[in-house]
Amino acid sequence: MENNKIAVGLDIGTTKIVAMIGRKNEYGKIEIIGTGKAKSLGVKRGVVSNITQTIQSIQQAVEEAESVSGMKIDNVVVGIAGQHIRSLHHSDYITRENADEVIDDADIENLVNQVHKLVMLPGEEIIHVLPQEFKVDSQADIKEPKGMYGGRLEANFHVVVGQVSSIRNIGRCVKSAGLSLSKITLEPLASASAVLSNEEKEAGVALIDIGGGTTDLAIFKDGIIRHTAVIPFGGNVITDDIKEGCSIIEKQAELLKIKFGSAWPGENKETEIVSIPGLRGREPKEITLKNLSKIIHARVQEIIEYVFLEIKNYGHETAKGKLIAGIVLTGGGAQLKHLRQLVEYITGMDVRIGYPNEHLAGDSEDTLSSPAFATAVGLLYEGLRGDSYSEQIIEEVIEPVFEKSPISVTTATKLTTNATANVLTNASMEISSEQKVQENQKPRIKSFLEKFTDRIKDFLDNAE
Asked: DSSP 3-state assignment of 175?
C-alpha cells in the first residue's frame, strides 16, 4: 500500500467505529474505495472504557472496509476526543540574543517549545500548541514574524490539553487490532477540515459536531483556529431521556428519536401518536409525538446553550470576534429534525447543516456524505493531505505541519489553517542544540506529531 496514494481514517466514536479507505482522484478530490462500520460498545463519552470490546469493534470495521475495497489495511489516522480534552489561552515571549538578526524558524520553534514546558495537571499532556498572533517588540497583530527584526518575540497561543492515559488507551486498542498509527489528530479539527470551506474559516465560523457521547466545538476566525471545546453530552443523552421519560428500552428510544424525533415541540399535534410494542406479550405503549419532542427539546436546548456559552466566552459578541459565517452543525446528532431552526432561535446566528462533501469526489455515495461520517472523512482527508506535494494542494490548504520541522511553520495562518489538525505534540519534549543543528541540515524532519506517535508506539512496545 502506497501511503502517498491511499490513506485510512479510523473514527473511534461513542456510537460507532468507522474505518474509511480512500485516495485522491486526478482532480485532487477524495475517492472513497471502502468503508466499514461497527457498533461501538467499549467507548463512553469519547473515551475508551472497555479495551477488549473496542478492539473487537475496530477489527470488525476494518475487516468490512477491507472486504469492500479488496485491500489490506496497515496504517490508520486516528482521532482523539472525549470529555478529558480542554483548551486554554496562553501568552509567552522570548528575548532574542541578537536583535540585529532577522527572526527565523528557530526563534519561532524556541517560543513554541517554551509553551510546551507549561506545567499541566498530573496525567495531562499538551496536545496542540496553536499560535494566534505574534508581537515583535511593540508591533502587535503580526501573522508572519519571519524575516522581521526585533529583540522580543511574543505570541498568543491556543493550547489544547488531554489526558495521557486516554490517548495511550486508544493507541493500545489500535495496535492490539493489528494496526499501526500513522497520524493522530483532534476530532473536532478533523471534522472541520471535512465540512468547512476556507471562506467560512476566514469570515468566522463555529463548527458544532454533535456525536453520540460528546459535542465538539471548533471556532475559526481569519483562517485560524481560535477556540476548541469538548462538551460531555451528545445524542446518547437524548436517547436516555426518551428511555426514562417514556419507560421504554434503549433500542426503542433510539428508533423513536431517529424516525419521529423533533427538536421543536410546536411541530407536533396532540393527536399524533406512535405505538411501541410491549415486552414479552405486555400491552403496547402509546406515546404522543408532542411529548416525545418536548423531551428531546429540553435536552437539546441544554446542549446548545452550553455550546453557545463557549462561543460567547470566545468573544463572539465583540466586534473583532464576530462569526460572520455563523454556525455549522455536523455529526450524527445534526440529523435531528428542526435542530437547525432551534439553534438559530437560541443563538440568533445563521446556521447550516455541514455535509462532509467539501473534498469528496462528485460520484461518492450519498450515505458517505452524511453528517454522521464527517469525522471519518476528515481523518481520511488529513491522512491524504499529509503526503501530497502538488502545488495546487499546497496553495489551497497550505503545507501540512507534520511535513516540517517542529513548528518551523512561520505563520499563525500556516499553522492553523492547517491546524485542522495534525499537530499532536509532546509537552515534555526538549530539543537539544545538537538536534537543532542536525534539523537545519536535513530536508525531512520529524514533526511533533510524528514524535508523539513514535512515543506512543514505544510505550506500547515496552508495555508488552
From this structure: helix
